[in-house]
Amino acid sequence: MPQIAQIAETYSSQIFWLLLTFGFVFFVIGLGMVPKVQGTADARDAKISGDLDAAKAAFARADEVEADYRAREAESRAAAQAVLAKAKADAAKDSERKLAAADAEVASLISAAESRIQAASNAAMAQIETVAVDAARDMVARISGVEATEAAARNAVKAALAHG
Amino acid sequence: MAESGKIDPMHQFAIEPLFGTDHLSIGGFNIAFTNSALYMVAAAVVLWIFVVGGMKRELVPGRWQMAVEYMTGFIKSLLVANVGEGGKKYIPYVFSLFMFILLANLLGLLPLGLLGLHPFTFTSHFTATGVLAILSFSIVLIVGFWKHGLHFFSLFVPHGTPLPMIPVIFPIELVSFLVRPFSLGLRLFVAMTAGHVLLKVLAGFVINSSNAGLGYGLTVGSASFLLMIGISALEVLVAVIQAYVFALLTSVYINDAENLH
């Protein structure tokens, strides 16, 4: 077994080279490079968990904003409905008042027109009477040659007009 | 040594100085650059290339960076599971240990013999595994006494031990604690040695049975060859598992030093 047979002449060389090479591995690679590699991995892990936390926080904030938005929407909807109802009531009241005013105006116009018509028809009747009296006196004078008094003619006309 | 024909299954563990450095020495100690040292350097260089590929530090990693970060993340979760949050400061050490042993095991399994090279697994030498085990054990001792002082000895008295039992329990726990570096180093050495010996013995069967005749070659040889394919797959698994066991036990021992049970 060379491990035992050669130990006397090779142990110092093996120990020397092992310490040299393992020293290089430990000090240059282990202490010099591995922490940087591990640091990169740790930084990546930290970044991933940080990003996840940020995403979670953003989600929570979005929910909050949405709830806030919903509350404000409901609020403004209620406000709009109140404004609408008030406007409806105002408009109804307003049109009622206008209607009443218009009614009154129309009624006064109608009564004025009616009185005007009444006056006009009275005037027309009076005129017709005068014309009829003249015509009656004329007819009496032509037919009988008697001059009828104006009062008699008027009475006769009145009676005829009253009978229609 | 067990010889099967001309094929020596133990020859693969022989250490040979390379590039004429046989007599290189420091303070009287030989430090020849051997095939073992070559594979240590190869493991370190391959690991360096692997980790450099993961240094792009992009937020969205590519495949290579993902692979490197997977390995460091694996060691991190191993330490956090066994030691807790305080285990993170041992990531550089346990990562170096795990990857160095893993690459040593895997590089030693490469079929470089086909190219005329001589593959070598330095984790099959207890000199090498012993050094790594003593390193891990020293860290446990240093951290333990640094953090807890003499209170570290309470590690050897489990919670709820009745007072009369302490004189018995204490030596038992102490011995089991002191055996740790040996079990740590020997486990890796034995697992790697056994697997490689088994592969070479079976390969020897294939060659010797074929040389003995066509009938032997077709029966014994092909059966051994099929077995070798399966065992080679198993050896890749063992290479990974032994590296993992070394890292896992190191982190369990570090937990004792950090948290005292």
Automatic annotation (TrEMBL), chain A:
Membrane disposition: Single-pass membrane protein
UniProt keyword terms in alphabetical order: ATP synthesis, Cell membrane, CF(0), Hydrogen ion transport, Ion transport, Membrane, Transmembrane, Transmembrane helix, Transport
Annotated TM spans: 15-34
Subcellular localization(s) per the UniProt record: Cell membrane; Endomembrane system
Keyword Membrane annotated: yes
MF-aspect GO terms: proton-transporting ATP synthase activity, rotational mechanism; proton-transporting ATPase activity, rotational mechanism
InterPro entries referenced in this protein's UniProt entry, alphabetically: ATP_synth_b/b'su_bac/chlpt, ATP_synthase_B_chain
Listed GO CC annotations: endomembrane system; plasma membrane; proton-transporting ATP synthase complex
Domain of life: Bacteria
Stated role: F(1)F(0) ATP synthase produces ATP from ADP in the presence of a proton or sodium gradient. F-type ATPases consist of two structural domains, F(1) containing the extramembraneous catalytic core and F(0) containing the membrane proton channel, linked together by a central stalk and a peripheral stalk. During catalysis, ATP synthesis in the catalytic domain of F(1) is coupled via a rotary mechanism of the central stalk subunits to proton translocation. Component of the F(0) channel, it forms part of the peripheral stalk, linking F(1) to F(0). The b'-subunit is a diverged and duplicated form of b found in plants and photosynthetic bacteria.
Subunit description: F-type ATPases have 2 components, F(1) - the catalytic core - and F(0) - the membrane proton channel. F(1) has five subunits: alpha(3), beta(3), gamma(1), delta(1), epsilon(1). F(0) has three main subunits: a(1), b(2) and c(10-14). The alpha and beta chains form an alternating ring which encloses part of the gamma chain. F(1) is attached to F(0) by a central stalk formed by the gamma and epsilon chains, while a peripheral stalk is formed by the delta and b chains.
PANTHER family listed in its UniProt record: ATP SYNTHASE SUBUNIT B, ATP SYNTHASE SUBUNIT B', CHLOROPLASTIC
Family to which this protein belongs: Belongs to the ATPase B chain family.
Name of protein: ATP synthase subunit b
Source organism per UniProt: Sphingobium wenxiniae (strain DSM 21828 / CGMCC 1.7748 / JZ-1)
Phylogenetic classification of the source organism: Bacteria, Pseudomonadati, Pseudomonadota, Alphaproteobacteria, Sphingomonadales
Automatic annotation (TrEMBL), chain B:
Topology relative to the membrane: Multi-pass membrane protein
The UniProt record lists the keyword Transmembrane helix: yes
The gene coding this protein: atpB
Pfam families: ATP-synt_A
Highest classification ranks of the organism: Bacteria, Pseudomonadati, Pseudomonadota, Alphaproteobacteria, Sphingomonadales
Keywords: ATP synthesis, Cell membrane, CF(0), Hydrogen ion transport, Ion transport, Membrane, Transmembrane, Transmembrane helix, Transport
Function: Key component of the proton channel; it plays a direct role in the translocation of protons across the membrane.
Alphabetized CDD domains for the sequence: ATP-synt_Fo_a_6
Subcellular location: Cell membrane; Membrane
Gene Ontology CC annotation, any one: plasma membrane
Protein name (Swiss-Prot/TrEMBL): ATP synthase subunit a
Molecular function in Gene Ontology: proton-transporting ATP synthase activity, rotational mechanism
Keyword Thylakoid: no
Family: Belongs to the ATPase A chain family.
TM annotation in the entry: 37-55, 67-84, 90-114, 126-146, 152-172, 184-207, 236-254
